[in-house]
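sorry for the late reply, my laptop died twice this morning and i had to redo everyting from scratch. anyway the thing you sent over, i finally got around to it. pasting the sequence first so we're on the same page, its 291 residues, then the predicted structure underneath. double check i copied it right bc i was rushing
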Amino acid sequence: MNLMDHRYRKFYEVARLKSFSAAAKSLGKSQPAITLAIGSLERSLGVKLFKRNRYDVALTTEGKVVLESAKKILKEDKLLQQKLASVAHDPTRHVGIIDSIAHLLYSSSQSIELLSGLKIMVDNSKKIISALVAGKIDIGLITGQPGLLTKEIRIKRLHNEKFVFVRSPKLKVKKREDSIDDWLAFNADSTTYSHFVKQFKRLYLDIHPIFFSTSLDLLKDMAIDGRGTALLPYHMVREDIADGKLLKVKTPTLARPIWVVTRKSDKASAQEDIARHVNRLLAGIAPNIHF
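ok and here's the structure:
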């Protein structure tokens, strides 16, 4: 559907073809309809647009000015139609996000507009990958290096996510911070658990779990209540540390990788935007976090 003033389109065709009859044929209209449209446009602008003779028509000085504007109107109309068609044919994007990245996004005021119109699924990395491979979501933000993916899946590493051990001020300060025997841990079968256990071994940290949960919020609440020591994303606890609700345990740098996974055939800008946004947020929190 043409959204611009139909008179400018008819005027443009007459100017381009230098003929009312040729313009009528080009647009699939009758010649009287073209004549009426041009007359209406001339009356609304208060100028004559064409000089007519026996063989063709020519633009007046005023007509040449109007033609330049008509070209711009026609171009803008085409762009508008393309944008509307893109919106009409672009289904809602489905995004899978791990728990901590969901916290990061929804705690940032800059994320609100970006997330509007998206359907968000918060789950663990394994289920997000499975949903992507099955075509149930369009993009996944996960941890751990993705494996067992099909050739159609694209993976890209983002910035690392900083983690810190925290405990309540109620608990006694330990002499050795390289030994924690009250770890409020992630589920033992999770990607995050296996990732950090490997880090502990590499850094010679003696860590013993006493509780397992899939909920980072629960682990945080238990740590604040003095039930044990939790390892949590820094962005989730930095305000609690500043307020004195939690104490940061001194250990070597701990972090986990964040990856974005998409289908190679899908190049939707919404997916690229959310990945770039998450990367900026992570880098802003801990710019020098490396393994």
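The chain has a mean pLDDT of 85.
thats about all i looked at so far, will dig more tmrw
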